Amino acid sequence: MILIADSGSSKTDWMVVNNEGLVNNFQTMGLNPYFTDKVVASDNIAEIITESLLAEQISHIYFYGSGCGTDESKAFIKEVLEVQFPFSEISVNTDLQGAAIALFGDKKGIACILGTGANSGLYDGNTIVKKQISLGYILGDEGSGAVIGKRFMASVLKSEAPDEIVRYFYKESGLSNTDIITNIYRERFPNRFLAHTVKYLLPFADSSYVNGLVGDEIDTFFRENIDGKYPIDTEIGFVGSLAWLFRDIVTNVAKRYGYKTPKILRYPATELAEFYRDKIISTRS
């Protein structure tokens, strides 16, 4: 059996696959090397090892994660995995590579991530051959949940958001202004907190405020990360909860920049599992 991981900054989806297909799936916290330490990461990975999934049953692990773009970060994840799966062959790559495989398989395309963070890259059917630098939610990540949440929280605290949305946010979240500031400036994962606040916009998705806020950020994502960076005649696709939840806006902006209707996946792990299942079958036939 093989184990596949799709890890963002907020969560990691784990899929166990054999030649029959999906065997089991799990979810743990995000394992971005820049936002977690080895003890916490190892403890979270240990949670998926149960009586129904023994470490010695896994022959290969394919881990695709945010923050895994350097040799150091890949080594970090590999070392953590080796503690729990000492008998497995382990491959660690970026979440962008995983997104490209999920979206296009072995075909060419422009893979984009719009989740807690944001990224894009040109995929040649085998690997990412060109990508834009990902600077995180402070310096970059245009169009991401963290940046949209940052703008949303600023407008709430400044009383600039519509009263109806502000009242709904405070009632449903149970947060005070002090709680918001504390989560952003004193807690460990402000990007996750900010991205989490976007869900309070969903009941107002048709409002001019939400369309303006989200549409502006998606447009900025295209302007800064797509326009003029990749061939216009190449298929484009998106993965991530933000892209999925606001897929109509993403589709409209993509068309405005000259791209055809994009393929949008909320959970790329499912497609990754199918990709590797097919690989298992083809190698055994």
Give the key terms.
285 residues; single chain; alpha/beta; 12 helices
Largest sheet: 5 strands, mixed
Q: How much of the sequence is in beta strands?
A: 15-25%
Can you name the CATH architecture of the domain at 2-99 and 268-284? 2-Layer Sandwich
Tell the overall outline: globular
Runs with pLDDT <50, length 5+?
none
Explained architecture:
With 285 residues, the protein is of the alpha/beta class. The protein has a domain at 2-99 and 268-284: 2-Layer Sandwich (Nucleotidyltransferase, domain 5). Helices cover 45% and strands 20% of the residues. It is built from twelve helices and ten strands. It has a five-stranded mixed sheet, sandwiched between helices. Strand 2 and strand 3 form a beta hairpin. The two termini are 17 Å apart.
Short description:
With 285 residues, the chain is of the alpha/beta class. The chain has helices at 38-46, 71-84, 95-104, 136-139, 145-157, 163-173, 177-185, 190-196, 208-225, 241-245, 247-256, 268-284; strands spanning 2-7, 11-18, 21-29, 60-65, 89-94, 109-114, 118-123, 128-131, 236-239, 263-265.
Secondary structure blueprint with pairings:
Elements: E1 2-7, E2 11-18, E3 21-29, H1 38-46, E4 60-65, H2 71-84, E5 89-94, H3 95-104, E6 109-114, E7 118-123, E8 128-131, H4 136-139, H5 145-157, H6 163-173, H7 177-185, H8 190-196, H9 208-225, E9 236-239, H10 241-245, H11 247-256, E10 263-265, H12 268-284
Parallel strand pairs: 1-4, 4-5, 6-9, 9-10
Antiparallel strand pairs: 1-2, 2-3, 6-7, 7-8
